[in-house]
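Hi R.,

Here's the chain you asked about this morning:
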Amino acid sequence: QVQLVESGGGLVQAGGSLRLSCAASGRTFSSYSMGWFRQAPGMEREFVAAISWSSGSTYYGDSVKGRFTISRDNAKDTVYLQMDSLKVEDTAVYYCAAEAGFSYSSRPRQWRSWGQGTQVTVSS
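And here is the predicted structure, written out as tokens:
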């Protein structure tokens, strides 16, 4: 498995932007698909975005399409989540995930490596 550490969370006003980073270590980063999930209090973990290891194809949850952008820098072993036009309902703990052997999955249980999470709070 790969070790993941997220950063970049914080408090932002609605309409603002944040960029999350997830630094990976322990395995060949370029061979892992990377994903972002989020979890609000009392809610299930929700798929946000993913980027495949092979083609670099990107995938997004319906609630963030057109506002969030996932990217990766294999030279830095880091994946990013640029979040624009933030809404109050984007408030959650955001988790980075990694998995080898597939392009992506929207189901959290398909991903075996997880970071500790970073809090994003959007105020009205």
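One quick note: The chain has a mean pLDDT of 95.

Cheers,
M.
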